[in-house]
Design a protein that fits this description.
Elements lengths: L1 H35 L6 H22 L5 H14 L2 H4 L15 H34 L1 H24 L6 H4 L1 H13 L5 H29 L1
Helix pairs in contact: 1-5, 2-3, 2-5, 5-6, 6-9
């Protein structure tokens, strides 16, 4: 019973700091809008909302996965994977960092970095939870296979979003064009070196970040 209370307290503390951190970014964005009189960075609010979707799915699955049949669990995790790239994608919003109007560059650096941090940690925490669920259901090895695949697919998704401007929901709205773009890059990888480079570098970065998170969480659980 004491252990159950302890884990609930940890969950409450974690979710509270995530909400507080997100609120901090939202306040920064709204202050920027108020001070500058323009809405240049309001896209960060939408990106933050999208970053919360995979985390919210993982939290729901944490409590209800044992009630779902295997096939339905796989479908929900597939839906999670569809939105997972939106979380670390915010890192690429650093592309927008440049001197604009009367806003100090350092302020915009804090705004975007704060949003990027929230997206990254939400994504990695959601992956951690999904991996735990899969490891319990199908074994530790399969859990790590899913983690590796999710990070690689997520990195490819970041490329699709940043450079080709595809969104997660385009798999429903424009599936044919999206699939053609993806297949072209798999069939002719050397013709799309940027795709390969971005995917590999983000895969390495996210995997190292994820391993760091796993080790920190492991040490804290001991």
């Amino acid at each position: 019973m004491d252990e159950l209370i302890y884990h609930k307290q940890k969950d409450i503390a974690l979710n509270s700091i995530l909400i507080l951190s997100t609120a901090f970014t939202v306040v920064l964005v709204f202050f920027r809008i108020h001070y500058s009189g323009n809405f240049e960075y309001d896209f960060l609010l939408w990106n933050l909302f999208l970053a919360w979707i995979p985390y919210a799915i993982s939290v729901i699955l944490k409590f209800y996965n044992h009630r779902l049949p295997a096939i339905l669990l796989v479908i929900v995790i597939g839906f999670w994977l569809l939105f997972f790239p939106n979380a670390p994608y915010i890192i690429t919003d650093l592309f927008h960092l440049r001197k604009k109007h009367n806003i100090p560059l350092w302020y915009d650096c804090v705004v975007i970095s704060s949003a990027a941090w929230n997206g990254l940690i939400l994504g990695l925490l959601s992956l951690h939870e999904i991996q735990k669920i899969i490891s319990k259901k199908f074994g530790v090895k399969f859990g790590w296979l899913l983690a590796g695949f999710s990070i690689t697919a997520g990195s490819f998704g970041i490329y699709l979003g940043r450079f080709l401007r595809w969104n997660s929901w385009d798999i429903i709205i424009s599936p044919t064009k999206l699939i053609i773009d993806i297949l072209n890059r798999f069939i002719h990888p050397l013709a799309y070196l940027q795709t390969l480079s971005v995917t590999l570098l983000f895969t390495a970065f996210l995997f190292l970040a994820y391993l760091t998170l796993k080790i920190v969480m492991l040490n804290n659980s001991q």
